[in-house]
Amino acid sequence: INRMTLITQGCLAEQKKALENGCSAIDAAFNRTVQSLERRYGTMQTIAEYLISLFPKRKTTVMTQCFGETIVGCMAREIKKRGLSVKFFVPETRPYLQGSRLTASVLYDMGFEVTVITDNMPAWVMENNGVDIFTSAADTICMDGSIVNKIGTLQIATIAKTYGVPYFVTGIPDADKKNRNDVVIEERDKNEVLYFRGMQVTMEGVDAFYPAFDITPPHLVSAIVTDKGVFAPYDLNRYLKKGVNVFD
Prior knowledge:
The protein is an alpha/beta fold and 248 residues long. The protein has helices spanning 3-20, 25-52, 70-82, 98-109, 122-128, 153-162, 191-194, 237-241; strands spanning 60-65, 86-91, 113-117, 133-136, 140-141, 147-150, 167-170, 195-196, 199-200, 213-216, 223-226, 229-231.
């Protein structure tokens, strides 16, 4: 389900209706967007409650991956509400640095102990720093349990499996994505790899490759946490039977 299409088509329909009634199309789009965001945050808060219920009651160390979504704030708020002691290791998620710029900022701003690590450190940190949980959101959750997320998610999920660390994915299954074959991985501008803040970091002539996402197979996923409960990655059809929740 193309969420952006749902959002824009929904706003367009409201604008047309407003114009037919002699009202402001701008106000109609604004109000529709606010209502959509209210539904989104409400949904994410429910997901956060289910996610935190999976945390051990003792002190918890969590590793994240590119958590720039609304869920990270909802997760942090729910942790505070329950009075849990949680600290975070946040991979930087190069080359765009969403982890260090967004995830770490949100969590630190909400009062948590946050440690940023580079993208080649998760294995060492999991082995030596007592990571209890690995969690991420997902750009797409296929119905076969495959997880499409920021590049680097697959390698951390593989490492987590090696060290017995559960991987909890948060989000809404995409009913139109049956499996990984329905997903096209975007390849972004290689200059984002070759340059950092305008400075070239390689010798002239060196090539680069930037797939923006990777696909984690379901056998590396411990559970998928949704607004309708916690599901095994192989059991997402049961989610659909409970009714599909889309961000429109």
